[in-house]
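User: Look at the shape:
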Amino acid sequence: MANYYTDHPEFDFYLNHPEMKRVVELKERNFADKDKYEDAPVDFNDAIENYKRVLDITGDIAANIIEPNSEDVDLEGPHLVDGRMHYASKTYDNLKATRQAGLWGISMPRRYNGLNLPITPYSMASEIVSCADAGFQNIWSLQDCIETLYEFGSEEQRQKYIPRVCAGETMSMDLTEPDAGSDLQRVMLKATFDEANNCWRLNGVKRFITNGDSDIHLVLARSEEGTHDGRGLSMFIYDKNDGGVTVRHIENKLGIHGSPTCELVYKNAKAELCGSTRLGLIKYVMALMNGARLGIAAQSVGVSQAAYNEALAYAKERKQFDTEIIKFPAVYDMVSRIKAKLDAGRSILYQTARYVDIYKALEDISRERKLTAEERQELKKYSRLADAFTPLAKGMNSEYANQNSYDAIQVHGGSGFIMEYKSQRLYRDARIFSIYEGTTQLQVVAAIRYITNGTYLSIIKEMLGREVSEEMKGLKGRVEKLIAEYEKVLADVKAEANQEKQDFIARRLYEITADIIMSLLIIDDASRAPELFAKSANVFVRHAEEEVLGHVKFIDSFSADDLAFYRQQAAEAEAAE
């Protein structure tokens, strides 16, 4: 019987990464829970075995319940009845299975009935669920919103809401509005304090809300009358049990059909303030979005894995001219690139997750006691690394999911265009990944300061100092040449001091940076587990060379006249409208 965890030894490889010892030590507070909770681990190995058991259950449910239900869920989708959203029939089966298995509140402390898993194994579970059905992964992974409530809510709110999520109640983050998409400073949903009832009231409309009729909502609203920027926004908790919110519309989307995307109408809805006023966008949404972006990276890797599975199976089975098409260079080139991007993308996903784990655990400890000087330095280091790596992990993996699902269809030929084949659904599902929770363009914006201030270059040089296996030294040497090109083009761009040009080529600088970092990561993985990653390392480094050198050539030859040409072309197109 299939199991999406045990079928892929890569998960155990990343669970046994050297940095996981520090992750587990911090998350488990040196295993302080072992005397209070029967299921708490007693040491590092016991903790890893706990994670494996959770992933084994997740892999079984994903392969044998969620994936078999995925086609019916895609065809039926959610529907609207009297202002309420109803999931597709088999989505309820998926919810029941994950609830009965205890796969909710995964990252929450045991005192709230959570499993106390770090972000790294939680991201693995998220990838596994996405491989089965990316639409259901949206519903299930929004449990991660509880991290924001745990971090910024009061203890009373934690006691009230976290056990409900651990029991399987659903969540949503209600941020965007008809006139406020990526520019959340324009949010105008109004929050007013009701003195008579000692509560807040919410009024307005939210749009494009994933899982919008959930049980518990985190809502961004304008609490400061007369303001028009982010300083007037606060975060609120809305409980569906209190009423006051109806679903006006469910979007008819290209993909992720099982995930309801709703337009919500708030009419004097009762809500609780989460944290302090005025910090909703400035502090709380940023934390919420960073977690969501890591979740989309995991979702993207899951779909890339599914695309690879479909492409490989079809290429091995399908014959043309009495030969399996996997033996044709044009086909095995595509299949090899899918696998290489999958492995490199997974590597940066779990590297980022470990960074997030360490800094989040230290932040949590700082709320309990004063950190030592060494711990404060560690917190600063890993917070910076997580902040730098998250836009790379989200942006690149979401783009790879699109590319890989596209190539999976191409491997299928005409059959890939037929709705009976799974590859077309993967392609439709993947398209949203590079758009929601911050477009790829916004990931570039988030990353560019780390490019221009030399942060990534410093990280790259530190990574370059790591020892690699004898077999990987040749690839490492090739990457060293790319780093020299990267350093030179960065110096040239900075010396030119042309902000408009820098903004124009930012996407190319971003991709060069990501290609080099992922090359070094996959080389490191292949040094420790050549049986898993050596082939992908060889393919990915060659892919990186092709892309990096092409981008460098473009940037080197790009002049002020070229920039003027692009600008003029855009102006003429605008004038012609």
User: Anything to note?
Assistant: The chain has 18 helices and eleven strands. The first helix runs from residue 10 to 15. The radius of gyration is 24 Å. The chain has a mean pLDDT of 97.
